[in-house]
Write a structure and sequence with these properties.
six-stranded mixed beta sheet; elongated
Length: 246
């Protein structure tokens, strides 16, 4: 496991790389370390603006070569969300480094966890909107129907996957209602103990059909409960139609 000192050393090396590269005109810390010191388990997330006349991919490949040759970084995955390219690296001692590059003219904060380190942004940016309660409920019900179909077909591993999705959408609804982050399970652990207690039966103990069906039933009830608390008008007709299923 990496140490805080190793993480800080990587941060300093990346910032030195940025300072020495005239193609890079601004940089910021993002993620858990942007607004505080994080904790010993926080990974490193840095984002940079590339001069508009320079292809972002060119800088990314040059930096990747440096990280690989100097620091034994392994490239894990790329994610392109126009106009930004994200690349995730794994360094020795399981230190994760998330690097993102954006053309300077479109370099703006993509969320609240953003701290400018040098240069300037192209504006304030639009903060991402939380998911809509109606969408969380609707997709949760769709996954519940998929779960039931998988169980009937004897596809227990697929059923297990969808049952977990039903539970996740119910938990996301609970987070949304309380002003907690409702994506990527970020708010789950901050929910009140009594709310989390209502999800105990949603955990899947085995792949036996009876266990899966029990967890599915509990997950659906949690989803309906949270949707009712959110005041969604479709809860009652949906509950009635689900109750009529064999």
């Amino acid at each position: 496991m990496f140490t805080v000192e190793q993480r800080d050393a990587l941060r300093d090396r990346i910032l030195a790389l940025a300072e020495a590269d005239p193609r890079v005109v601004a940089g910021a810390a993002v993620g858990s370390l942007a607004l505080g010191s994080g904790d010993p388990f926080s990974d490193l997330d840095l984002t940079f603006a590339v001069a508009d006349e320079v292809p972002v991919a060119q800088v990314l490949e040059d930096w990747t070569r440096t990280l690989r040759d100097e620091l034994a970084a392994v490239q894990l995955v790329d994610l392109e969300r126009e106009p930004t390219i994200y690349r995730v690296f794994l360094l020795p001692d399981a230190l994760q480094f998330d690097l993102s590059l954006t053309p300077a003219a479109r370099f703006v904060p993509a969320g609240p966890r953003f701290r400018l380190l040098f240069g300037q942004t192209a504006g304030d940016g639009d903060l991402p909107k939380p998911p809509a309660a109606t969408d969380l409920f609707g997709w949760g019900i769709i996954y519940a129907l998929h779960s039931r179909t998988c169980l009937r077909r004897g596809r227990v591993w697929q059923a297990e996957h969808y049952i977990g999705a039903v539970r996740d959408h119910a938990l996301a609804l609970a987070c949304l209602r309380r002003g907690l982050p409702a994506v990527q399970a970020r708010g789950y652990d901050d929910l009140p103990a009594d709310i989390l207690g209502g999800f105990k039966r949603t955990h899947i103990g085995s792949l036996e059909p009876e266990q899966l069906l029990s967890a599915l039933s509990a997950a659906v009830q949690a989803l309906l409960r949270e949707a009712a608390e959110a005041g969604l008008p479709s809860v009652d007709p949906v509950a009635a139609r689900l109750a009529g299923l064999p």
